[in-house]
Design brief:
By secondary structure, the chain is α+β, with helices and mostly antiparallel strands. The protein is built from three helices and four strands.
């Protein structure tokens, strides 16, 4: 059926060595990929959970709070700090603007 291999022993042995080298390379790469994936999974498992609430900070003297976001909000800016539930409620009660995307005021049960 597949009779396209060379008929002599020398060339067959050469092909066998060549394929053995390729299998070794492939096995090394498989092992490296498995190690990398295992390290990534360990990193995901050990990553601390994200904050529940984020205060977006302004620019300038003292970096005043600008807006409150839920911890998973995609619209939160780069200048931020994590706050706990109590502080988030206090900030909203003090008049801090709630994000219109994630609506932390609704999640915290604060009516306007």
């Amino acid at each position: 059926m597949f009779d396209d291999l060379p008929p002599d022993l020398a060339r067959l042995l050469t092909l066998r060595v060549w394929h053995a080298m390729w299998l070794e390379r492939i096995d090394r790469r498989i092992a490296a990929v498995r190690r990398r994936e295992a390290e990534q999974e360990r990193g995901r498992q050990r990553r601390p959970p994200g904050p529940d609430w984020i205060v977006e900070l302004g620019i300038g003297d003292g970096r005043p709070p600008v807006e409150l976001h839920a911890g998973d909000c995609y619209a939160a800016g780069g200048r931020r700090r994590a706050v706990d539930r109590g502080e988030a409620r206090r900030l909203l009660a003090a008049g801090l603007r709630a994000c219109t995307h994630c609506r932390p005021d609704r999640r915290l049960g604060i009516l306007e």
